[in-house]
Design goal:
Layout lengths: L14 H30 L15 H20 L2 H19 L9 H45 L1
Helix pairs in contact: 1-2, 1-3, 2-3, 2-4, 3-4
Length: 155
């Protein structure tokens, strides 16, 4: 007889578990807001494109991508969905570039926004690949366990 957990009189959902999940989500949201603030503060600093003053200017695109890898990962934890985190990353990348248009010594470029979104998309792909490999490993262990059980019965 298949009894769902809600029909089982011994089943009592734990309110603590729900509250813990909500608290964790609030912490991730707070971390995302702090990180977005750090990006905003960094974008507010006037910057010259002089390589002698800023030697990392040549790898500017990689820096943009790396900063939005972290933004995506925080957004994924805060929002709970990959699509939502990608959308939030793309919107924030656009707003960051728009903000830079008003900062002296900075410019808003679609190339920088594209590097931002590419960093978020790369993080999403790596995250999906890791999740898929974990799923495949779990399925493989189950298959081996089933086969192992059959071999023992056959002996």
């Amino acid at each position: 007889m298949d009894v769902s957990p809600r029909q089982n009189p011994a089943y009592r959902p734990s309110l603590r578990m729900g509250i813990g999940v909500i608290r964790r989500r609030h912490l991730w949201i707070a971390a995302l807001v702090v990180y977005a603030g750090a990006i905003f503060a960094g974008s507010s600093l006037p910057l010259r494109a002089d390589p002698t003053r800023f030697p990392l200017a040549r790898i500017d695109g990689l820096l943009h991508a790396a900063e939005f890898v972290v933004f995506f990962l925080l957004a994924r934890k805060a929002i709970g969905s990959t699509a939502g985190a990608l959308l939030a990353s793309a919107l924030y990348a656009g707003s960051d570039e728009l903000h830079q248009a008003f900062v002296p010594g900075r410019s808003a470029t679609l190339v920088d926004a594209a590097f931002d979104v590419a960093g978020a998309a790369a993080a999403a792909l790596v995250r999906a690949g890791v999740a898929r490999s974990r799923l495949l490993a779990r399925m493989h262990r189950r298959i081996l366990a089933i086969r192992g059980g059959r071999e023992e019965r056959d002996r």
